[in-house]
Write a structure and sequence with these properties.
This protein is mostly helical. It is built from six helices and three strands, in the order αααβααββα. The protein is elongated, with a radius of gyration of 21 Å.
């Protein structure tokens, strides 16, 4: 006798080999999978999303970004390091100031699509 079944779980085991094969072909190659999951991990922090959105207005130094998001320069730099590691932002030095800009505009399209999707859901 089966223990209590979890809602949404199959009551019996049945596998269609063709569907399983199609689903396996839809999986991402390991290096791509790792990059995608790392990108979503980085984007899972509200501060990093704020930083990326702020940079859509153009290049900003760390001091300005810290002001925009309301964090210390140290905390802001820490978040920017994560974005830099994934090559989502880049920086240049001008004297003693580090100016950041978006390196990969793809991430902005992803953020815009997500924001639009959830704004529409909230409105309905």
């Amino acid at each position: 006798m089966l223990a209590s079944l979890e809602a949404g779980s199959c009551e019996v085991r049945a596998v269609d080999d063709d569907r399983v094969l199609r689903a396996r072909h839809a999986l991402l190659a390991k290096p791509v999978l790792e990059d995608v999951t790392q990108a979503f991990k980085v984007l899972s922090h509200p501060t990093r999303v704020h930083l990326l959105r702020a940079l859509t207005a153009g290049e900003l130094c760390v001091c300005e970004l810290a002001d925009v998001v309301g964090l210390s320069m140290s905390a802001t730099s820490h978040q920017l390091r994560d974005l830099r590691r994934l090559k989502l932002v880049e920086y240049r030095m001008e004297g003693r100031l580090a100016f950041y800009s978006i390196r990969d505009p793809f991430v902005l399209s992803l953020l815009d699509a997500a924001a639009e999707h959830y704004a529409e859901r909230a409105a309905s």
